[in-house]
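Continuing the series of single-chain predictions for the mutant panel. This is the parent chain; the variants come on the following pages.
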Amino acid sequence: MQIQWYPGHMTKAIRQMQEDIKLIDLVIELVDARVPWSSRNPDIDQLGKQKARLILMNKADLAEEGQTAAWMAFFQEKGYFAAKADARNKGNMKAVTQVIQEACREKTERDRKRGILNRPVRAMIVGIPNVGKSTFINTYAGKACTKTGNKPGVTKGKQWIRLNKQVELLDTPGILWPKFEDPAVGLHLACIGSVKDEILNIDELALELIGILLEKYPGVLTARYGVDEALDAPRLLMEVARNRNCIKRGDELDYSKAAALIVEEFRSGKLGRITLEFPKKE
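Parent structure:
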């Protein structure tokens, strides 16, 4: 599948972020722990090159634990601070605060030597659409500070949020980049819901997802849907439709309903903890 999506408002958003970066001590980049590489916007490295950097692997509760640990080590080796989180779980936030303080230790020391005490860290929170930035901020702050929605493009403008005495956050809209050079990136982002479903062929997306699952997580589809994984992807999808009673008028199997079911159940974690891409050994 060749997938591209870059609405015009994202160009305006990146320009605004280039202005705001002057006010920032730390860039917190949220990525989806199921696709940590594909969900990193390459433009953020250029934007935040003079700043402390934290990669926060959100939705870690939906990803394979061992792969999340491997990705954290991968990013740390490249010089980033890294942490994992489930943005809906308040219990994760203490560990995130500790990593933020560690990432800004040098800045805090410089302030202290200049006699500036207790100035909060100012962090810009960035990420692609639908990685959970707003949910993370609301959970971290312990109150509803931002709009949330399980679809890309809910956050439209910027806003400052005072989280506590230690941290102030500048929220930003989710931004992609103009062209996905690697088709796998577009596919992965479509799987996690960071590309609008309205522009996708969900039938094709489900077939691609089935192929990945058969290769990397054999047994998952059998366990969930009672299908024979020796079948090719189209026939396997028909078996899912039959076993889940996805029927159209005239007693025909509803191929599209079964496709949407598989994609939704992957996104919601009902297929189990699944990571779609593994860190490359260099």
